[in-house]
Specification:
Chain lengths: 234, 319
C-alpha cells in the first residue's frame, strides 16, 4: 500500500520527538493527549515549521526540498491561535497565500462554511468561532494533500462541529489526501479512523479508536479510564 | 487609479518642494541665471531628496515593523530605533571624533539596531500592543537621556547648541554628499524590504501557517529588523529624528491595501514621503523669523492622530 506521508526523526527540541510516523491515504486521524503533551508540537513538526528537524515526505516529495509555492499544495496547517488583528475582508483572507486560486474553488469554500454573508466583513471583527470557519475555508480552498488541523472543533457551536466533521469525512472520498486533527472532546473519536495519543512529547498510543478506549494507555495518558468518562464508541 | 493619483501628487509635491518659496528663484533668475542651477541643484535638491527619501523610509519601515510585530503601534520612533540611531550618531560625532557623514550614518544604523535588539529582548516579538509600547517607550526615553548626557559631557562646549537643530529633525543646509550617505543605504534597504511584501502578508495568518507554507519567520524578522535599522539609522544620522510619520503613514496606507500589512508598504512609503515633504514645505514657507524644526511639526500634527488610533484600538478591545 502506498503512503500519503512519511515522517522520519521529526523533532522540536524540548517539545516532541524524535519520532517516526506514516500516514496512509484517506486516513482521518485524531491526535489526543493531555494539555502540554505535544499535540500542537506534533502538528508543527509534521508541517516542518522553522526550528523543526527531521524529514517529512508528502506524496513522495520532501517538504524541505521543494519550492514554497509547491508546499501549499502538499500541506496546510490550521494554527492553534485564531487571533487576527488586521482588518482584512473574509474573502481576501481565504485567498491569502494561495497560488492562483480559482474563483470557483474560493466560492465553494466560502459556501461550504456559510461565509457568504460575512465575506465583506473584516476578520478582526469576527468571533473566534467565525475565524475558525474562515481559516478552515482557507485550507479547504487550498486543498492540500495533507491537512494538519489544530483543534478544528474548538470554539464551534454544535451545528458547526457536525458540519466540520462531515466535511472531514467527505474529504476521504478524495484519493491521495489525509487529515490529522487534534481534539479534546473524546466523544468525537468515533468519527475517526485512527488515534494517536501524544504524551510527554512521544507517541503513547497509535491505533484504532476502539482499541484506544480499551487500552491501558488510555488511563495512563488521561489519568481517567474510558469507563469513568462514560465513553463508548457504539 | 488611486496609484496614479498618489504618484502624480508626489511628483507635484516634489516639484513644489524644489521651487518654493518662489521669491529667491525668481530673484536669482533675474540677476544671475548661472547661479540658478547652483541654487536648485546644490542647495534645494538635497533638501527635496532627503525630505522625500526620509519620508518614504519612515513610511515603509513603519509598515514593515507593524506587519512584523503584528501591531499597529510599532514604528521606528515608538520602537526606540530613532532614539537609538540619534544616540549612535551623537556618540560617534562628539565622542569618537568621526566627523564624516558616512561614519555617522553607520553609527546611526548600529544605534538603531541596538535599540531594536533591546526591544525584542524586553518585549518579545509577538508582544501585546501595551508591552511593546512600554518597552519602546523605555528604550526611547533611555536613548534620549543618553543622547542628552553624551551632549552635556561632550568635549565640545557647543555640542548642545550644534545638535539641537540636527536632532529635532531638519533638512536645512544638507549637502548632496550627505543626501547620498543617507539615501543610498536607505534606498538599498528599502528595495530589499519592499520585496518581502508577500511574505509579510502571509504572517497575517500566524507564524506557523507562514512557516508551514515554506517561509522562515525568524529569518524574515531578522532581515526586516536589520534592514529597517540601516535605513532609519542612516536617515536619522543625517537629518535627525522625525516623529509619527512612520506610525501614521502605514495606518492610512492599509486603507488602500484592503487591510494587508505587507502590501501597504509601498503606499505607506508614498504617503510618508508626501507628509514629510509637506511638513518641510510648511516649516520653510511659514516665516517666523526663525525656522521651526520639521520634526517638531510632524510630532505636533501626529499626536492627535496617534491618540485617535489608541482610542479606536481600545474601542475594538472592549467591544
Amino acid at each position: 500500500m502506498t503512503l500519503l506521508a512519511e515522517a522520519k526523526g521529526i523533532v522540536i527540541i524540548g517539545r516532541i520527538g524524535p519520532l517516526d510516523l506514516i500516514v496512509r491515504p484517506k486516513e482521518l486521524t485524531a491526535i489526543v493527549g493531555p494539555n502540554g503533551g505535544g499535540k500542537t508540537s506534533l502538528l508543527r513538526a509534521l508541517a516542518q515549521v522553522e526550528g523543526a528537524r527531521g524529514n517529512v515526505w508528502v506524496a513522495g516529495e520532501s517538504l524541505s526540498a521543494i519550492a514554497p509555492n509547491r508546499r501549499a499544495r502538499l500541506v496546510g496547517l490550521l494554527p492553534a491561535s485564531r487571533e487576527m488583528i488586521w482588518p482584512i475582508a473574509v474573502r481576501n483572507l481565504v485567498t491569502l497565500g494561495l497560488i492562483d486560486p480559482e474563483a470557483s474553488t474560493v466560492e465553494e469554500a466560502l459556501s461550504l462554511f456559510e461565509l457568504e454573508d460575512l465575506a465583506r466583513r473584516t476578520v478582526d471583527r469576527l468571533s473566534t468561532g467565525e475565524r475558525s470557519r474562515v481559516l478552515l475555508a482557507r485550507i479547504a480552498a487550498a486543498g492540500p494533500r495533507l491537512m494538519l488541523l489544530d483543534e478544528p472543533l474548538a470554539n464551534l457551536e454544535p451545528y458547526w462541529v457536525r458540519k466540520v466533521l462531515e466535511y472531514l469525512k467527505r474529504r476521504k472520498s478524495e484519493p491521495s489526501t489525509a487529515t490529522l486533527a487534534s481534539l479534546h472532546d473524546l466523544t468525537q473519536l468515533k468519527h475517526f479512523d485512527r488515534v494517536i495519543a501524544v504524551d510527554h512529547g512521544a507517541i503513547a498510543f497509535d491505533g484504532s479508536p476502539l482499541d484506544f478506549l480499551e487500552s491501558r494507555e488510555f488511563a495512563r495518558v488521561f489519568r481517567l479510564s474510558a469507563l469513568e468518562l462514560d465513553l463508548a464508541l457504539s | 487609479m488611486t496609484r496614479f493619483a498618489i504618484i502624480l501628487g508626489l511628483i507635484g509635491l516634489a516639484v513644489s518642494h524644489l521651487l518654493l518659496p518662489w521669491g529667491p528663484v525668481e530673484a536669482v533668475r533675474a540677476t544671475d541665471p548661472e547661479l540658478l542651477s547652483t541654487l536648485l541643484g546644490e542647495l534645494r535638491l538635497p533638501r527635496t531628496l532627503l525630505a522625500l527619501g526620509y519620508g518614504a523610509t519612515l513610511g515603509l519601515t513603519g509598515a514593515a515593523l507593524q506587519a512584523l510585530f503584528a501591531n499597529p503601534l510599532a514604528s521606528p520612533d515608538l520602537t526606540g530605533s530613532t532614539s537609538g540611531a540619534a544616540l549612535g550618531a551623537v556618540v560617534a560625532a562628539y565622542w569618537l571624533g568621526f566627523s564624516s557623514a558616512l561614519a555617522m550614518a553607520f553609527a546611526g544604523a548600529v544605534g538603531a539596531l541596538c535599540a531594536l535588539g533591546l526591544l525584542i529582548i524586553l518585549a518579545g516579538r509577538r508582544a501585546e500592543p501595551a508591552s511593546l509600547l512600554l518597552a519602546g517607550l523605555a528604550i526611547a526615553l533611555a536613548g534620549g537621556a543618553g543622547t542628552s548626557l553624551a551632549l552635556a559631557l561632550a568635549p565640545s562646549p557647543f555640542a548642545f547648541y550644534d545638535a539641537f537643530d540636527w536632532l529635532m529633525g531638519s533638512f536645512a543646509d544638507r549637502s548632496l554628499t550627505q543626501a547620498a550617505v543617507a539615501l543610498i543605504p536607505a534606498g538599498i534597504a528599502f528595495t530589499l524590504i519592499a520585496g518581502r511584501a508577500n511574505a509579510l502578508d502571509l504572517l497575517v495568518l500566524g507564524e506557523d501557517v507562514a512557516a508551514a507554507a515554506g517561509l522562515r519567520p525568524r529569518r524574515l524578522a531578522l532581515e526586516i529588523i536589520i534592514l529597517s535599522a540601516v535605513a532609519v539609522g542612516a536617515c536619522v544620522a543625517v537629518c535627525g529624528a522625525i516623529g509619527f510619520v512612520g506610525l501614521i503613514a502605514p495606518v492610512i496606507a492599509r486603507r488602500l491595501s484592503a487591510g494587508h500589512p505587507g502590501r501597504a508598504m509601498l503606499p505607506a512609503a508614498a504617503i510618508g514621503a508626501g507628509l514629510v515633504a509637506l511638513a518641510d514645505l510648511v516649516s520653510r514657507t511659514v516665516d517666523l523669523n526663525r525656522s521651526i524644526p520639521v520634526g517638531v511639526l510632524t510630532t505636533l500634527a501626529g499626536t492627535p492622530i496617534f491618540i485617535a488610533i489608541l482610542l479606536s484600538m481600545r474601542r475594538r478591545m472592549t467591544s
